[in-house]
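NADP-dependent oxidoreductase domain-containing protein, pasting as requested.
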Amino acid sequence: MDPKGWRLKLNDGHSIPVLGFGTYAPEEVPKSKASEATKLAIDAGFRHIDCAHLYNNEKEVGQAIRSKIEDGTVKREDIFYTSKLWVTFLQPQLVQPALERSLKNLQLDYVDLYIIHSPVALKPGEELLPKDEHGKLMFDTVDLCATWEAMEKCKYAGLTKSIGVSNFNRRQLEMILNKPGLKYKPVCNQVECHPYLTQRKLLDFCKSKDIVLVAYSALGTQRLKQWVDQSSPVLLEDPALCAMAKKYQRTPAQIALRYQLQRGVVVLAKSYNEKRIKENVQVFEFQLTSEDVKVLDDLNRNLRYFSAQMLADHPEYPFSDEY
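Structure tokens follow.
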């Protein structure tokens, strides 16, 4: 099955490729690697590229996309590019300038999807993680409905085709959905999702509202010390997942990705390794039985690798609610 054809319809009439390429890498990885990996991904068949202002590599990712357009591999309309509004820009007047900055870095005229990276606002400014003299993050209070109106204006201005959110819980989604004068619903909610955190209730809620769930950390996590508890179990070493990989003669990563596709979830696969990039596109070549999907469902232990505990005191911290 050709990955280029697999898309899900969004509630605004556009469509999103169900398999996306994640571009985040830790600080110590040279930025040039993002460009190399994005080119490899496009060559392998990825058409959905997921990036963000926070990742600090939009220049390199944009350069890769443009070079693949220039060499005739793809046209601009073949690529579905996602960028994210960082949390220091949630004040309404900062939203469009933030998107314009991303577009300038990318050297693209529009993005396909622009999403609010997180509902937790931090103090506006150039610092990505502004801290006070005691090393504590400096919070900001923002009316997320006003932020959403500024996102709608970006869509209206043609700077992005679709708008969505990330790391929102049900309550925060409902706040947007119930906003008086809502013009556009969020098309998606991008959240951590994998067999240890299946997000069943949030997925059911999103489906009921015609919002696509997009899974990040679908293969577990890069286990960055700054964000992730180092004692947490390694998803891709799970015995049930490994047994299933053997049964299907696939990699544990391919099983974890395929699982999400069969649940109607858009899934992001992050790798800078050429062999694994090519393997990750092969998830369209096989299908899990419904019994095996159930086995993976039952691995759920509500384990959040990325709990962002340093944000837990913020009034909009999303992970205290059940979902």
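Note for the archive: Residues 232 and 260 are 21 Å apart (CA to CA).
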